[in-house]
């Protein structure tokens, strides 16, 4: 609460306190800072951005339960891949978190689970005595094994699930506080007319988007490596089932929340020893549309924050135009994907959904989404590369530190 009050005070303060006038222009016009106590170094800028980015992408990520008997190196690489996805396209992680949030809420309402049980179900935390995960809704609704699975899940205490988590409210709060503190510093620099580097703008975008991830995954256990076995005793003649190899199409579609249907062989839980990395149970089409909208909103917010640096001091005109074009593209592509997806969903509910016109519209929409995706990824990579390139030449006021005494009331 105190931090929120401080942010409001920072935004509405006019730069004066009592009769003492405080100028908001840069306090140093020279090319160098001669007072180390009132200046910051390039190392301070880079370290602050990297610490915030690490907290926002590594600590805030909550992967699903991995396959059994995985080495530490494999587990590290698995989480590192999710981190890279979170850096290049963080809105995908927002969409993934939103899908599991809505699914966990749905499970808690329909089956009497707690929200923690719902998250644990979504992440493949429950497995049968035969070794396959219990993460499909069809398993809970199965007339034979469904009651046994439900009874087994309800017997597991919330404390037992929370005990498997490698993080708690304190560790998640620290990551959230790091993002809020970095945001406060950036707002203070804007308020005092001090230069913000492109790297800080990009980090601010990561911090803002990852606040959504932290809030959506607040009740999800962190970095669970061993599932909880439930269900009836294992038959003596039943052998463990080898994890089915997934094609690259399966991985690509699962990132966007599209999984194989439960009725075909790809959705048979007995073919898996764990759930995919981006797995979440199927949900109502309306909630799926809300999830896609949340993903688009996060992506557009990410790009909009980059657009806030429209008139920042760039080292060259070429870098300025690349930054602007990439920022606008990042804002526009998620919105276009959402509108095209909404159009395709709308076609499914109207008469000409099975006509040549309806099929043509769906094909063109899908081609547009897939066709511009490489361009979108290129823009994201450009947004990552440009801030690093800009560190070679920074304006003098970049190294002037925030004068925090400005926000202390003077009597």
TrEMBL record:
Presence of keyword Chaperone: no
Keywords annotated in UniProt: Membrane, Signal, Transmembrane, Transmembrane helix
Keyword Cell membrane assigned: no
Signal peptide limits: 1-17
Membrane-spanning residues: 41-61, 82-98, 118-137, 199-218, 287-312, 333-352, 364-389
UniProt cross-references to PANTHER family, sorted A to Z: TRANSCRIPTION FACTOR DOMAIN-CONTAINING PROTEIN
The protein's name: Uncharacterized protein
Organism: Mycena albidolilacea
